[in-house]
Structures are given as structure tokens and as C-alpha cells.
Amino acid sequence: MDNNLFLQHNILYACGYQKAQSSEHYFPEHALGIMLSGESYYFSNEGTFVMKKGTICLMRRNQLFKKLKKADQNGAPPSLISMFLDQKTLHQYAVENNIPKQSTYKDKALIDLTGDVFLKGFFDSLLPYINNPKKLTAKIAELKTLEAIELLLQTGDIFENFLFDFQEPHKIDLETYMNHNYKYNIPLLSFAKLTGRSLSTFKRDFTKIFDTTPEKWLQQKRLEQAHYLILQKKQRPSDVYLEVGFENLSHFSFAFKKVYGVTPTELS
Questions:
Q1: Which of 12, 77, 91, 139 is the most exposed place for a label (fewest CB within 10 A)?
Q2: C-alpha to C-alpha distance for 138 and 143, rounded to whole angstroms
Q3: 126 and 186 belong to one structural domain
Q4: Tell me, what DSSP letter sits at residue 254?
Q5: CA pair distance 247, 70, nearest whole angstrom
Q6: Which domain holds residue 196?
Q7: Within the chain, what is the greatest distance between any pair of CA atoms?
Q8: What are the pLDDT digits (tens) for 122-144?
Q9: Total domain count, the chain
Q10: Which of 164, 199, 233 finishes a domain?
Q11: Residues 238 and 121 in one domain
Q12: Residues contacting residue 174 through CB under 8 Å, at least 6 positions apart
């Protein structure tokens, strides 16, 4: 199980007790975090990013990631502190500090900031609050958030564009996007936002393109990929179901047998 403790509304301490746990993430806000123990692997269309003890990373909003958390070689469980930099706070900061309107950010979605002594010191200052969360008042959290923004802006010119590009995803090619990202198990509303659509427009456009509902298409697409990975790539069903976007093994096995007439285990 995971122990997720919001020290304050935008500051999260997470500690996982399982040896390995896979999950999927859609970040609607920027996230700045440090790995305290264990390891986390982030898989995205950009490739794989590994966070080990001491790794500091800034993750861009509106991104999809598959994440694998596991204990390190000494058995220490994965734990980290994350701070979410929400759009409202950044908008207010931009106004108060005369930040000019930014062009569309087109650089990396994950930026490795490991080794930055000021950011390391910043996260060190948050550690005492893990055992004393009531001490982290809303006012202190607000000051800490502003401190994080200031430190990022001092780190390099790229961060002004990263933080203050307030443009939302524009309406993009739905067919191409879904074929690239169907493995991510996120709500349809998130898919809609990421393709620049309202939920109703997303469903209407989807049905027009694929001649079926998003729910039916996603399940069929995921099952086809699972069938290929098990039969052709000889992967284990227990490894495949999470990779292709199913939440649990039993639901995956039931849906698989309904389509292919055999369970994933029988096919492997």
C-alpha cells in the first residue's frame, strides 16, 4: 500500500511499502519533487527517466507517464516529496512580477535538477514537516511555493518559459494521439483535455473517426496489444495487463477470454 500525506494542499509526501508498484499519472499541474528513498521509473513518449535517492526533477503539466516504484537495493521503500505548482499561483506570480507573455514551451517535459544545492536545501527544509504536518500552515506552504518558483527562475532562462506558458492544449489530431497513447489508463475527461476538446466534443469526434465509442475502442486496442505481447513476445500476463492500461488482472483476464476464448494464462 501507499501512504500519501498531503502536508499542505500542494505539498505531498508519498511512501510506498510494496517492493514494486506500477501506476499511471496525468499531471494537470507542474510538479517539483525529490526522491528520498527507493526508486521511481517514469516512462513516457520522451523515453525513460529514473529517479533514485537524491534525484530532483521538475515535471511539466499536461503530461502522461507510466510510473514504476520499487524499493532500492537495500530494501528501502520508495518515498518522495512533491510540490505542485498550480496555474492560479503562477498566474498571480506572473502578474505581480511583470512576467511577459510566453511562447509555447517546446522543450523537455522532465528536467533533471539533481545536484542543485539550493533546491536540495529547499527540500531539506521540508523534511521536518513529514512528522509534524500541522506545523506546515497554509501561509508557510504559500511562502515555500514562492521560494520554489524563485529558485527555479534563478536556475536558468528556460524556466520562465516552462512555468509561465499558460496555453492550454489546442485541438490536435485525435486519431494520431489516441493511437500513440491508448495504453495510458486515464479518464476520458483527461484524454479530452489533452486533445484540446470538451468531453462531449471528444466523444463526438472519436465516434466519427473510429466508428465506435472511446470505451469500446480502448478496450479492444489494449486487448489486441496484450494478445500480441503474450503470444509473440512471450511476456507474462501479470506483466502485460498494467502495460496496456488495465487496472487489475482479473478484469483483464475476463475481458481477454470474452474476446479470444481463452484466458491470458492459457494463451501464454
A1: 139
A2: 9
A3: no
A4: H
A5: 18
A6: 174-267
A7: 63
A8: 999 999 999 999 999 999 999 99
A9: 2
A10: 164
A11: no
A12: 195, 197, 202, 205, 206, 209
- Is residue 179 domain-shared with residue 157, that is, in the same domain? no
Cα angle, residue 144 at apex, residues 140 and 145 outer, rounded to 5°:
120
- Distances from the Cα of 178 to the Cα of 23, 72, 206, angstroms: 19, 34, 9
> Does residue 164 contact residue 86 with C-beta atoms inside 8 Å?
no
169 found inside a domain: no
Q: Are residues 117 and 186 in the same domain?
A: no
- To the nearest 10 degrees (0 to 180), the angle between helices 249-260 and 214-231 is 90
65 three-state secondary structure: strand
Q: What is the DSSP string of 20-54?
A: EEEEEEEESSEEEEEEEESEEEEEETTEEEEE-TT
Is 12 domain-assigned? Answer: yes
Domain co-membership, 95 together with 69: yes
Cα gap 204→214, rounded to integer Å? 10
Q: In terms of C-beta distances under 8 Å and separation of at least 24 residues, what long-range contacts does 183-188 make, across chains too?
A: 183/66, 183/222, 183/225, 183/243, 183/244, 183/245, 184/24, 184/26, 184/64, 184/66, 184/245, 185/24, 185/245, 185/246, 185/247, 186/24, 186/26, 186/64, 188/214, 188/215
Give the pLDDT mean for 178-183: 94
Tell me the pLDDT tens digit for each residue of 206-216.
999 999 999 99
C-alpha cell at 89: 499561483
Q: Say if residues 27 and 77 touch (Cβ distance below 8 Å).
A: no
Nearest to 162 by CA among 92, 97, 85, 83: 85
CATH number at residue 96: 2.60.120.10
* Residue 112 DSSP SS3: strand
